[in-house]
Write a structure and sequence with these properties.
two-stranded antiparallel ribbon; globular; PolySaccharide_Degr_Enz; Glycoside hydrolase family 88 protein; single chain; hydrolase; Glycosyltransferase; signal; Glyco_hydro_88; 14 helices
Amino acid sequence: MAMVFALILGLLFASCQSTAQTKSDDKTLVSTKLKWSERMAQTLMKKHPNAFEIDDKTAPKWDYVHGLVMTSFEELYKKTNNQMYYDYLKGYADATISPDGSIPSYSMEKYNIDMIVSGNIMFFLYDKTKEEKYLKAMQTMRDQLQNQPRTSEGGFWHKKIYPNQMWLDGLYMGSPFYARYTSKYENGKQLDDVAKQFELIQKNLLDSKTGLLYHGWDESKEMAWSNKETGTSPNFWSRSLGWYAMALVDALDYFPENHPKRGELILYLNSLSNTLLKYQHSSGLWYQVTDQGDREGNYLEASGSAMFAYAFAKGANKGYLPKEFKNHATKAFDGLTRDLMQITPEGYTILTQVCAVAGLGGKPFRDGSYDYYINERKKDNDPKATGPFILAALELNR
């Protein structure tokens, strides 16, 4: 009798344990056993069931942040062959592109180079599906570049509303797409023009003292933020440098080894990467204002750090950078996951300390000062950090 009673108690205890475990498992929507790339991707999918909802959008919008994150989903799908990642990125394309290939939320006449980057996933989608609307969307982006206003030397303006200006951001927005399109559909005939964009950045935005590049440059020198002698903005912003580093490693993919400009771009990447090591914090991260260290108000920022981790890792994997840059990328990635990552009870991965947005000029006016950069709002899991984080995790196999 005592044995039977003990058996019943044991079964009840096991049942209670099982029920408790089930309840606990119910809370975990994203498995912590997955690699960081999938943990972040599934966090975004759970929080934003439709890809166009990323960045708190309520209606489909053709936008650069979606282009960045969907690029990371493309790479994730290629790595895992998991259909849900493909469906998610295709869902974004289908929500923003009409059956006839037009893009309702896009206006070419604004000549905003940020818009080009969402065209990157169209190469993959068109190759996979042969749906003409994806090709037409690509052609629309190519048409914009064909007519994009330029500086006197041939550099793309950042936007029509920012005349005569080149920003580091714009190199990522336009150059990888431009290089890929001309390589695939134009026999590479415009690769020299792609390289010219980088050449003009190096000529006009590089600071010889630090080796860093300023966020922006105004050829007219009329903007209140521009130096009246050089035309450059006053400070170095890590995310803008991150955009530029990613632009180099991604555009290089489409320069054949025998192309005369390829070595030049690799030199730019190595120069920037070696310079960035001088400003890498002991944690592996970089400050919002790159060269100002622990000056009051400055902070270790996630998006720029993730972008550098990706550029370093891919650069090393591709042979554009020395192999030791894989270690520098690992150090940066460790800093992100150790110091700036929060894990919720549901298993969601939340990157903190992300600058939500920063620019130059506009209304209200942004002066590019130190105080401006450190006081822009922060936003957890901003897509300008989550996209590069996924890309870095894939390059590092983390």
